[in-house]
Each structure stands twice: as C-alpha cells, then as structure tokens.
Design a protein that fits this description.
The chain has about 375 residues and is an alpha/beta fold. About 50% of the residues lie in helices and about 15% in strands. It has 13 helices and 10 strands. The protein starts with a helix and ends in a 6-residue tail after the last strand. The model is unreliable at about 380-385 (pLDDT under 50).
C-alpha cells in the first residue's frame, strides 16, 4: 500500500511538471512587449469597486490616471458604502495629478439578493459607463489596492489589440512582506496557476478560462454581447467567472507583469487565511464530495511524500524523495518571481497543509452561514445553496 501511495504521488508530479501546460514556468507569461507607435489609441474606462480602501485608494488612483497612455483613459470609482472616506481620498488623489476631470465617483447601493458585493459595485460602475454618448473600446476592471507603474496599461491594450482579444488580464504581484505573506502568498499564485494553466487559458481549443480580478481589460462589446456582469452576478470567484464568460466570445490572455502590484497588506496568518477561505469552498462548488476528494488528493500529492521520505524504506523512500524534489523544483520560478529563497521549495508540503486547513475552514464557514465573508458581508450562505 505504501509503495502504491508513493508511486501515485510521484506519477502526479511527473505529470504536473511535464504535461500540465507548463503552469509553473512563471517567466513564460511575463512577456508584455513595449507598445507600438500608434497615431491613435482606443478609449479605456477603468471601473473600480472600493469598500473601505482608505489605505490604498490614493496610490491606486494616482498610479492609474497618471499612466502614460496615448488615448483617453478615465475612471469610474464606485464607493461601496465605505465608512473611512475612500471617495474623498480618491477625489483628492485625482486632483493632485490634474486628473479630476477624468475621475467619476458614484455612491454604491446595497447589493440586492443574488449579487455579490464586488459584482454589484461593478454593475453600477458599468451602468454609468453605458450612459456615455460614445462607448469606450475597453473597460479596465481593477481593484482599489492595485498600483500601476511604467506604461503597463498601454502594453496591455497593445496586447489586446494585436490579438483581437476579448480580454487581457494581469495577475498582480501580491504584497509579500510579513512572515505570513512570505509563507503563503507565492504558493497562492502557484496553486492558481496549477488550477488554471495560463497557456491553456490562452488556447482557443481549451475550455480552461480564468482571469485576475485586480487587472482585467475587457473589450466593451465582448463583455456585453457575452451577457455582461449580470450573467455571473452571484459568483464568488468573480475574476475566473468573468474570464470564462469572455472566452465564450473570443480569445483571452492571462499573464504577469511586475508593473501591476497589489499593496493590500495581510500582516497575519488570519488575514491571508481570510483571503483563501473566502472562496476556497466555492472553488469546490460547495460539494462535500469534492472537498473529501481534495483532502485525499492533497494528502497523497503533498503530504505523504514527506512522511514516506522520512519514514519509508527502499523504493518507497526513493519515490517519495523524487516527489518532494519535483514539487520543490516546480515551485522555484514562482519563488524567484517573488524574490524568495529557493529553500522555501522544501516547505511546500507544510504550506499546502495550511491551505488544506483553510479550505476545510471555508466549508465550515459556509455551513455556519458565513461563507464568502469579505469586509463584513457573508456572500455565500445556505439560503443560496443549490
């Protein structure tokens, strides 16, 4: 039995490293080229949902509206019932860089039944964009903790134009300063890539679809002809739902750029855990069966190799050591991207155990009626479970 477990774990890592879309090769997807010289650039309107974002909104607005972009770049901020002066800080930040005329701030309303808070805020912002006499070519759905640098908006638009894409999205570089962040954040990106290999996202012959909600450039016509935000109104994993929606309309792209950074601080394990558990059970479609399967799979693939490498003998030990080495090897590009020591690769089984515990906690919170908790709102609960 132990030999079988060791063999399954090793076979899983051989498949993941060699045949799973090259998901782990982070540098392959960090390839936004310099924007070409153009006589005209398409209009872009950013829509920013913001709920109690006083710590980051000023930096975010200044970085976005200060981007060197050859076309019209404006923003609609939806103040989602903040209590910390988010709207006033956003307005002041735009004024500081002479961009007050390019920022529209609207007061968000309470989400109706069936809507998550972020998607309802986006809906209100997009409705304001829809009222314009001339529709933009693109809408940039971005978060209030995202800071832009360089000419990344122009690069992203150029990528969308060159490929006639329905969507181009960038996985923001998440903050990785506190011990909790250093321990858990690189793995968050690694596991996301494993679930949604970026190369498969871009392939039209693959159904795999995903996006990163912090920076998602959508073609206006594609978003609305695909059904609009209304079509995914109750989704907790809204970025991936948006990516899947837009892939039904046309080609999509998802990649990295160091010029798109999240400055949201997660100083404690509780902070990072809240981010993980908010949507982990939704990822499993609220299925106890899928949860049990996930526990079993992660035990065999991540945890058993450590135990068998230390306590096993003969072929069992060698297979387990091979599994541990392969997972540490696959983790290296993500660790380099986050400028972390390669020795963190050896800790991936321990990190995976923490993620597994947070996934179980996500299910527990769901059955308590506190699923999808974010900034005081429980957005997934038993009343909406089908």
């Amino acid at each position: 039995m132990l030999l079988l477990v060791a063999a399954i774990g090793c076979a899983a890592w051989i498949y993941l490293v060699g045949f799973h879309g090259g998901f782990w090769i982070t540098s392959r997807y960090n390839d936004l080229a310099a924007p070409p010289v153009r006589q005209s650039w398409p209009d872009v309107v950013a829509v920013i949902p913001a709920r109690d974002e006083a710590e980051s909104i000023g930096r975010s607005i200044r970085s976005l509206l200060g981007q060197p972009y050859g076309g019209r770049l404006s923003a609609v901020l939806v103040d989602d019932q903040s209590s910390d002066g988010t709207a006033a800080l956003a307005t002041a930040a735009a004024a500081e860089i002479g961009a007050a005329d390019r920022l529209t701030v609207i007061s968000g309303r309470t989400p109706p039944a069936g809507w998550t808070g972020k998607l309802w805020a986006l809906k209100q912002g997009l409705s304001r964009v829809e009222e314009r006499e001339v529709a933009p070519t693109y809408v940039l759905l971005t978060d209030a903790d995202i800071v832009y640098s360089g000419d990344v908006v122009a690069r992203l638009v150029a990528r969308a134009e060159a490929g006639n894409l329905a969507m181009a999205s960038i996985m923001a570089r998440l903050r990785c300063v506190s011990f909790a962040e250093r321990f858990l954040i690189p793995a968050f990106i690694f596991f996301f890539q494993m679930l949604y290999p970026f190369s498969w996202v871009a392939r039209e012959d693959r159904t795999t679809a995903a996006a990163a909600g912090g920076c998602l450039l959508a073609r206006w016509t594609a978003l609305y002809e695909a059904g609009g935000i209304d079509a995914i109104r109750g989704s907790l994993i809204d970025d991936c739902a948006t990516g899947a929606l837009l892939k039904t309309y046309g080609p999509v792209w998802l990649g990295f750029s160091p010029d798109v950074v999240s400055v949201r601080a997660s100083k404690t394990f509780e902070d990072v855990g809240s981010m993980i558990s908010r949507s982990a059970y939704a990822q499993l479609r609220y299925s106890p069966l899928l949860l049990a399967g996930t526990v079993l799979a992660m035990t065999v693939v991540y945890l058993a190799p450590v135990y068998l490498a230390l306590a096993g003998h003969g072929d069992v030990r060698w297979l387990a050591l091979a599994s541990w080495a392969l997972m540490a090897f696959a983790f290296q590009p993500t660790l380099r991207y986050y400028q972390r020591s390669p020795f963190w690769g050896l800790a991936l089984p321990a990190i995976a155990l923490v993620y597994l515990l947070y996934t179980i906690m996500s299910a527990y919170q769901f059955y308590r009626g506190r699923g999808g908790m974010w900034k005081g709102r429980a957005q997934a609960n038993l009343s909406g479970f089908r």
